[in-house]
Design a protein that fits this description.
145 residues; alpha+beta; two-stranded antiparallel ribbon; 2 helices; elongated
Length: 145
Amino acid sequence: MFSSFAVSASGMAAQRIRINTIASNLANVNTTRGAGGQPYRRRDVVFSADPVFSNLSGSGISGTGPGDGVIPVKVIGIIEDSRPFKRVYEPGHPDADSDGYLLLPNVNPLEEMVNMMSAMRAYEANVAALKSEKEMKQKALDIAR
């Protein structure tokens, strides 16, 4: 009965992690020296379908009971982007190499803003689905009275 709530909740949790990761990328767009002396490397969230999960009553849903086919999302990790760093000529910068070139993070602010908007829309869609499901269940209870 509550498996749809779990699906929406897992989607909202996953998108919250994605939004936090994007915010971290944007906050470090100009970080030229991070861990290991290298510039900040852009991070991205990896999602996966979770075919087996427990609903609120504690029974597992694995294709043998109510809620068959309902698969929530889960975050399986945060990976670093392997694209190369940006290289700009700034001989006066303290982090510039001997040739005067500075390595900047591989973060594209425009791409991050598009990703942020996408994540926020996905979060809002999960909220709308949760509200709709709540209203349907409330109406079903009202009918039973």
